[in-house]
Amino acid sequence: MHQPKRQPELVEGSLPVFVFPTELIFYADDQSTHKQVLTLYNPYEFALKFKVLCTTPNKYVVVDAAGAVKPQCCVDIVIRHRDVRTCHYGVIDKFRLQVSEQSQRKALGRKEVVATLLPSAKEQQKEEEEKRIKESLIFEQSIQPENKVVSSGPSFLTVFLGVVCIAALMLPTLGDVGSLVPLYLHLSVNQKLVAAYILGLITMAILRT
């Protein structure tokens, strides 16, 4: 009799964890930012259970800090800042997402998300703009006029990766019938989830430039 193949046992901490975003910024003067959402993706063929830990749990409320994610699904984790005071401005806190198989206790993967409270979104944007202008002036003064290069917008590599991810999402999924695209170009749901995750990161990077 042929015995069923066993899935290779995963080493503790070796499983990649897909969570978006990887940074939370709360603004004291904007109550709409006091509640934010982390999305945990599970692109794997098995269910995961998760747990959210925090370095300063007294400052935050995590709705459903523990739970499960079905295979090839995602779950939203709501995080509320409940201690908006000036003494917390600029302090970096950390959340840790631990995931494991439902039948195991050991954490197969971990991912850290940083959280920061800032006084004002407008002040932050103004400071960043002043910083960019200052850095631009210093750069222009440090090079010869004939060697100045003006660069704006996303890099070629970023655009190329974005186009590849979009193309991957447009390809047929495994199991689709009647497609004219060759079978070897059909992607699994797992592969499309990864492409969507990478495209989200690229989009955030472009928006911040």
TrEMBL record:
Keywords: Endoplasmic reticulum, Golgi apparatus, Membrane, Transmembrane, Transmembrane helix. Residues 16-140 form the MSP domain. Signal peptide: none annotated. The keyword Transmembrane helix applies. It is found in: Endoplasmic reticulum membrane; Golgi apparatus membrane. SUPFAM superfamilies: PapD-like. Plays a role in differentiation and/or proliferation of mesenchymal stem cells. Proposed to be involved in epithelial-to-mesenchymal transition (EMT). However, another study suggests that it is not required for EMT or stem cell self-renewal and acts during later stages of differentiation. This is Motile sperm domain-containing protein 1. The lineage of its organism: Eukaryota, Metazoa, Chordata, Craniata, Vertebrata. The gene is MOSPD1.
